[in-house]
Design goal:
Layout (H helix, E strand, L loop, with lengths): L1 H28 L3 H6 L1 H16 L5 H11 L4 H25 L6 H21 L6 H28 L8 H23 L3 H12 L4 H25 L7 H26 L1 H22 L1 H33 L9
Helix pairs in contact: 1-5, 1-11, 3-4, 3-11, 4-5, 5-10, 5-11, 6-8, 6-10, 7-12, 7-13, 9-10, 9-13, 12-13
Family: Belongs to the 4-toluene sulfonate uptake permease (TSUP) (TC 2.A.102) family.
InterPro entries: TM_pro_TauE-like (IPR002781)
Keywords: Cell membrane, Membrane, Transmembrane, Transmembrane helix
């Protein structure tokens, strides 16, 4: 088995060789090194983001989006398109690494989510995302990630204790995956550039009570697929936002190694500490967003944002309760 893993890892090394050959051609052959060098801050930020991308169910855009939009004060649409672009490299690299190491994946639900995303993501890019104002994009990102972070802060022990996954009919898993891919691809991923991985992961750990060693690699692969799809669709139809390529040029060589490194290191130190840290960051970015946009939101907008987080958490708890019943277990309190 060990020899077999070493053999498959050559596929990942071949991917890296191909990517870095193209990147070197761009920066040296086409003289784009000054552009890459000028955007070094996003490369530094994505050193952290890429680790989170490979070791948690949150894509590299989880860091890239708030850094560009909140810290660098760039348009939310740029943060969204950059998330697609940078994850198309980092998450793809992590996915190839995961598959090369033959890590377990929830294939039935993943295949369904891929099919759903194949339909939902382009529809969202064409018919939903163009009509979402920049402020709403920020709030959707902030609310989804905050609720996800809070969920892990009070349910982390339970989530980390799962072993294997609840066995259902594979056709049922596939159908659930299809609906997840269709809905989250059309709404969350197309609008923010990230999120479909978190939705699929949430269904796996709350509904199917799936081991993190299965749920997280599965979420990485669906985000890789959706990111590549998003880049292709946007480049062929609506076009990417100005500034995406320059930031991608700086960050891509970092995430190509950083995301697989995160997938490897987390297997040594455990996923729970990383998830807790990232969960705190998710809550922090919500507070940061509300503070920076408080003038536009007003008291009503802030109250609605907090209510939206509460509704997301209520939905998570209903999903968990359903999963507990399906597994034939008595619901446990948060701890």
């Amino acid at each position: 088995m060990q020899q077999q893993r070493r053999t498959f890892l050559w596929l990942w090394l071949l991917w890296l060789a191909g990517f870095y050959s193209v990147w070197l051609y761009l920066v040296l052959g086409l003289g784009l090194w000054p552009e890459a060098k000028a955007h070094w801050p996003i490369a530094a930020a994505m050193a952290i983001g890429s680790y989170a991308a490979g070791s948690t169910p949150m894509g590299g855009g989880t860091v890239g989006f708030p850094v560009l939009v909140l810290l660098f004060e760039q348009p939310a649409t740029l943060g969204r398109d950059f998330s697609f672009a940078v994850q198309a490299i980092g998450m793809t690299s992590a996915s190839i690494f995961i598959l090369a190491r033959r890590q377990p994946v929830a294939w039935a639900m993943l295949n369904g989510a891929i099919l759903g995303s194949l339909v939902g993501t382009p529809l969202g890019i064409w018919f939903i995302a163009p009509y979402i104002p920049g402020l709403w994009i920020k709030l959707i990102f902030a609310v989804v990630w905050a609720s996800f972070g809070i969920l892990h802060l009070y349910r982390i022990n339970e989530i980390a204790s799962h072993s294997g996954m609840t066995e259902f009919n594979e056709k049922w898993d596939f159908k659930v995956g299809c609906w997840i891919g269709l809905f989250s691809g059309a709404t969350v991923a197309s609008v923010t550039g990230v999120g479909i991985d978190m939705v699929l992961y949430t269904a796996l750990v709350l509904l199917c009570r799936t081991d993190l060693k299965i749920a997280i690699p599965t979420s990485v692969i669906i985000m890789a697929f959706t990111s590549v799809l998003g880049v292709v669709v946007k480049n062929l139809t609506t076009g990417m936002q100005p500034g995406v390529f320059e930031n991608w040029l700086a960050a891509a060589p970092v995430v190509a190694l950083g995301a697989p490194l995160g997938a490897y290191i987390v297997a040594l130190i455990g996923r729970k500490p990383t998830l807790v840290v990232v969960a705190f960051l998710c809550v922090l970015q919500f507070v940061w967003t509300i503070h920076s946009e408080s003038a536009q939101l007003g008291i009503t907008g802030i109250a609605v944002s907090v209510l939206a987080v509460a509704l997301c958490l209520l939905g998570f708890e209903r999903l968990r309760h359903w999963g507990t019943k399906l597994a034939g277990e008595r619901p446990q309190p948060a701890y």
